[in-house]
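Worked problem 6 (solution included).
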Amino acid sequence: MKQIIESHAGRVEAQSRGLGQGSTFTVWLPVLNNNDHLEETGTDFTLMYSLNRILIVDDNADSSFTLGMLLELKGYEVHTRNSGKSALESLSEVNPDIILLDIGMPEMDGYETCRLIRQHPLGSSLCVIALSGYGQGSDKQRSIDAGFNQHLTKPVDLEVLIETISNR
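Solution. The predicted structure is:
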């Protein structure tokens, strides 16, 4: 997690009073200045991001939490789930525009989860992006065959992810 935070110009500090007394971890991340972003791109930042409700599905809770936090700092509404089953159960409640779905999950992998998402009444309108450590050509083809719109390999560059989301 420390590497992910530092790759986004943040820092992590750990403190402890000693053995058996617990630890405190503090994370600092830079805040996007919306006005600077508007001047640089000429894009209506609020409108662009307010339309995107993102569901992150990853069995690694630290990974989904960190990515969710970074996307929230960019203005997205983010929900996380840690299994394919819980993602499917939450589709109608969360009503996401975009799903960022890990492939290598236990019980129900991302391929099967994506196939089942596509069978859901909302499934045909969703943008489903694979975020996976699997990055071979055959992995990417298998993602397309399962119904994913895009396949990005971890660790994903945040700006590449945002560009992918923006161009969906």
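Discussion: The chain has eight helices and seven strands.
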